[in-house]
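#struct-help
A.M.: can someone run this one for me? Single chain, 248 residues.
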Amino acid sequence: MTSTYTALPPNTPSLPFRMRNAEILTVVYRSTREAAARFVPEGLAVLGDRVILHFYNLHDAGPYGSYSELAVHIPVEHTRSGTRGAFSPLLFLSSDAAIASGRELFGQPKKAARITLGEQGDLVVARAERNGIDFVTATTPCRQIAATPAALQRFSFGTNINLKIIPAVDGTGDAIREFTARDFSDLTIHEVWEGFGTVELRPNAHAPLHLLPVVDVETALHWRADFTATYGRVLERLASGAESHTRA
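D.P.: on it. Structure tokens below:
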């Protein structure tokens, strides 16, 4: 019997592809080491008290079209391999396709949210909203101090580390449990502006960024870049537990 199955467009596009004209506001702040440790799983070592927020306007995201994103990063080291990078405990996006790809391929705990980034008069303002709550607002003055890519390299977020968990379909545990990593590839930075920054957090049970309280804002960087989205790599495959430890 001849199959009548029709191949439908995939949720996860084939990699690699180029991401062009990405506008990013990166705000680096000090929280507490104890707060950061609450968000980091066993197998990763927290490297300090920094929290890094990246608000993205991805104007040309290849097969995703255009969308916006907030990535929350905590600097860590993968104990077994010695790989250093930024762990992602929280990520929020406006694209269902990008959410599916991040969760399925890399194990990134992506959720839907409304992210805005733009200029309001002489101020760059970024917001993330979920459930009708602006759970984070960040600001920096427009084009305050011209900087170079070296200003970004002070904060080691070029390698993104995630804990990928896929629960078994029969509920007996985790079918896949592994630490993964992916890198910025073919990064072209067009401009970087650095300046004073602010971060305001509001509680939201589905977006608990407020549990990483702001002690001091270190800096804000408003930059534009192109980069290539690529596949990642497995840092460590972990034994499946007797019960699922799937994150939200």
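A.M.: thanks! The chain has one domain: 20-237.
D.P.: also worth noting: Confidence is low (pLDDT under 50) at residues 242-246.
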